[in-house]
Amino acid sequence: MEFFIGCQINLIHFEKNKITDNSKGMESHCFGYILEGHARFEGEQKTIMVDPGDLIYIPKGERYFSYWETDPEILFYSMPYECYETQEYYPLQKVSGLDRELFDEMFYLSQHDCYKMMGKFYEFYGETLKKMKKGTAEKRTVRIRPALEFLKLNAESPVSVEQLAGLCHMSQPTFYAEFKKVTGYSPIDYKNRLRCKEAVSYLKKTDETVEAISEKLGFSSASYLRRQLKQFAGKTPKEIRKEESLQI
């Protein structure tokens, strides 16, 4: 079950046709329930048309443009939210056939009782997921795949964000933001996780010292490796080896 860090519901009103540019990517997940007007969402993988009564779902990190047409006005509920992620991925999509009264109620509660609103949102979220199609985030890795492959093969070697960005033909700020959206980690943190995974394997399968493993994997010191392992595995090198010996 998802645990929500925060959610809000806003009533958005446009009096004329409007184009929104979200080419930098959504900062949070978002549902939008269309009350009046029509829109075309051009996302990374597909284009979706929405009309009154439709619910649009936009995943965190999605880059898109939306083109709105008044009829006679544009009116919709916007529901951005943050949550601790699960392994499931839902792409940009729409859900039809939902009752407007549910969204009116959530909007009312957001103004008068935020706790009841969150309870209603949990209920709405659980039921809506049953109607949504799961997807894969694989296509979103295409732009940073050269960097991922390089890190996998050269995790123990020094590397800079500038070098990784160059492999992906991006500017450093764009690459950094894209990498973190797709992997959930900064390039350095991602590299450290790869090295920690290798370190755990060495600790379990060899008798090499922490100092030797640290040097082999390119860590600046054995103490730094110990700190990284504590973050990565929640254990010290000694605890990792002890756990392995108990399983044999």
Protein model, in words:
The chain has 248 residues and is an alpha+beta fold. It is 43% helix and 23% strand. The chain is built from nine helices and ten strands. The strands form two sheets. Strands 1, 2, 4, 7, 9 and 10 form a six-stranded antiparallel beta sheet that branches. Strands 3-8-5-6 form a four-stranded antiparallel beta sheet, with no helix packed on it. Strand 5 and strand 6 form a beta hairpin. It is elongated. The two termini are 35 Å apart. The relative contact order is 0.11.
Helix content: 40-55%
Mean pLDDT: 88
Largest sheet: 6 strands, antiparallel
Distance between the termini: 35 Å
Sequence stretches where pLDDT stays below 50 over 5 or more residues: none
**Helix-strand sequence:** EEEEEEEEEEHHHHHHHHH
Instruction: Evaluate the radius of gyration.
Output: 23 Å
The share of residues in extended strands comes to 15-25%
Count of helical stretches:
9
Overall geometric form? elongated
Structural class of the secondary structure composition? alpha+beta
> Would you report the number of β strands?
10
Oligomer: single chain
Question: What are the salient characteristics of this protein?
Answer:
248 residues; alpha+beta; 6-stranded antiparallel β-sheet; 4-stranded antiparallel β-sheet
Task: Describe how the helices and strands are arranged.
Layout: E1 3-7, E2 10-14, E3 18-22, E4 29-36, E5 38-42, E6 47-50, E7 55-58, E8 64-69, E9 74-84, E10 93-95, H1 100-112, H2 114-129, H3 145-153, H4 161-167, H5 172-183, H6 187-205, H7 210-216, H8 222-233, H9 237-247
Antiparallel strand pairs: 1-9, 2-9, 3-8, 4-7, 4-9, 5-6, 5-8, 7-10
Helix pairs in contact: 1-2, 4-5, 6-8, 7-8
